């Protein structure tokens, strides 16, 4: 399967790469689909399967691509929310970027649910950012808050509700995210 002279592959070629046996080619297929943007939405199911790949770099590219193609079906939102807690932080970051980039109220609702679930199930430490850095249950919460901050106005209401938990270790980072959301 040869790319065109410009180095681009067709939708059909990218889907074939994504379903192949070679992990590097699967990664390239996911990346190529993401570069195509919304015209590659027809490949959302294949990207969802790639989000469960055994190679983190395939999972990360699949998460990124789902955001780029603007796939916002409930199954996609749920899968991306689950990827926030991937064992490899980079995959979670790609999923957060994808969800934040969608900028929809449905994505904001999913992110708010992730944040609430993670915080409700995590004993609070004196330093929430240190807990997130340890890779515990705070990782998805931190990534969800970051994604909400990148959403702009669509994420502000969810961030405001996050402040209502009354934990000062959370309030300060949330205020920063609200400020950054107002600048987008």
List the helices and strands and how they pair.
Elements: H1 11-18, H2 23-36, H3 44-50, H4 56-68, H5 74-83, H6 89-102, H7 105-120, H8 128-133, H9 138-150, H10 153-163, H11 168-182
Helix pairs in contact: 1-2, 2-4, 3-4, 4-6, 5-6, 5-7, 6-9, 7-9, 7-10, 9-10, 9-11, 10-11
Order of helices and strands: HHHHHHHHHHH
In one word, what is the shape?
elongated
Task: Supply Rg.
Answer: 17 Å
Helix vs. strand class: mainly alpha
Number of domains: 2
Please provide the count of β strands. 0
Q: Pick out the low-confidence regions.
A: 131-137
Strand count, sense and closure of the main sheet? none
Give an account of the 3D structure.
It is built from eleven helices and no strands. 47% of the residues are buried. Helix 7 (105-120) runs antiparallel to helix 9 and helix 9 (138-150) runs parallel beside helix 11. It has helices at 11-18, 23-36, 44-50, 56-68, 74-83, 89-102, 105-120, 128-133, 138-150, 153-163, 168-182. The protein folds into two domains: 8-71, Leucine-rich Repeat Variant; 88-184, no CATH class. The protein has 184 residues and is mainly alpha-helical. Helix content is 69%, strand content 0%.
